[in-house]
Amino acid sequence: MQLSTLEKLNTARTARRAAVVVSDLSSGRAQAFMEGERFPAEWDAAITEALRSGRAALATIDERPLFLNVYLPPPRLVVIGAVHISQALARLAPVAGFDMTVIDPRTAFATVERFQNIELLADWPEDVLPTRPLDRYTALAAVTHDPKIDDYPIRVALDAGCFYVGALGSRKTHATRVERLRSAGVSEEAIDRIRAPIGLDIGAASPAEIAVAVLAEIIDALRHRDRGEQGRAA
Length: 234
What we know:
By secondary structure, the chain is α/β, with parallel strands linked by helices. It has helices at residues 3-15, 44-53, 84-92, 125-128, 147-160, 171-183, 188-191, 207-223, and strands at residues 19-24, 30-34, 57-61, 64-71, 76-80, 99-103, 119-121, 138-142, 164-167, 194-195.
């Protein structure tokens, strides 16, 4: 691999941006593109699909055999609230390949005994997130039922373009949340991105079942996320 390609991949990794290396199998030449960069128009569909799926692929374009190797940032799950659903997610998320962080200022809930082997931050989201920014490869799940804790990280996640933003609560609870967000200046387009009630509708009842529904919805959002900002064709 050429030094310039390695440098671009390292830049993408540091910035938590996706990258794809397109290799021409007939000539041996390779080009690396970071998400958000311009790339040749004829490669648009192939690169878009590779970035969406996260899988390497072969393609033939203009009679040229190409190999597309994709490098995605590791997906992260940030959970606001050290509740029973979060405990179940802490067991499930790593199995699905997600780095997970739990944030909750309530020290009675945010204990190492309840959350082992994951990052646990017993502090207010307002104090944590400015120094640990969310991004497009982060999912945020707000599950405390407390607007004093949940509302700020929801706004931050929407501003950051997180691929998933979910919030626990009934439709009535969410309607009240929507009014608060509107009053805080959040746009209707952004509000519509919130998954609430949180999780796929599988009839989940227990915390463990809700955690399964939430994780499944997060995986679905990751694999079908909007590629509209990845880059405009040259």
